[in-house]
Amino acid sequence: MILNNPSPGRPLTLTQRWSTLFTVLLAIGMFGLGLVLRAQITGAVAEYEDTRIGIRLTYPEKWLQDTNSGDYVFRVRDMTRAGFKTTIQISVQPVSSLTTERNVADQLARSRVLTLQDYRVLSISQSTLRDIPIEIVRYTYNDQSTSPFLQSFSTVVEGQDILTIQRGQAIIISFRAAADSFEDEYPVFDAFLSDLEF
Fold first, then answer.
1. Domain 46-195 maps to which CATH number in 3.40.50.2300, 3.40.1000.10, 1.10.287.3610, 3.40.50.720?
2. Is the pTM of this model over 0.85?
């Protein structure tokens, strides 16, 4: 690479070599700074706390928060997504002392068959989340809530519910995304669960 060399046959001067080195290092430094700033922007989170049900969490800062519905206490959605908006939602239901997480999962499945088109449970498994017993339910359904003027067909949505019973209430943590992007979006839900306190 020849920079401002007046005679093609002559080698670069010391000043030209230092200028070239400085330019390359500056370009690498600016690229690295850009990556750091991008990571900070995409990883920015907002905090939420609800003392009534005893939860504290963080969620992606750019997602739209909605707490104004009777059937859930917290919901955030990624409004930048085309079609179905990736959603994280927390619902709470009072339960008796004899109710198990599996009872709650079965009750949800029965009610969703009536309200969600083509609702189908893919799997139900048991696990723990920081030593708290949980039931994990994976499912799919067809969503037709998108404006008919923007989209003339339904979207297959894949979801996962984390169910646990704490202090006499069933806590249902739901993650839903378009089926074709579910695995790509799932790390956001993983990060959400890792910061969740209840």
1. 3.40.1000.10
2. no
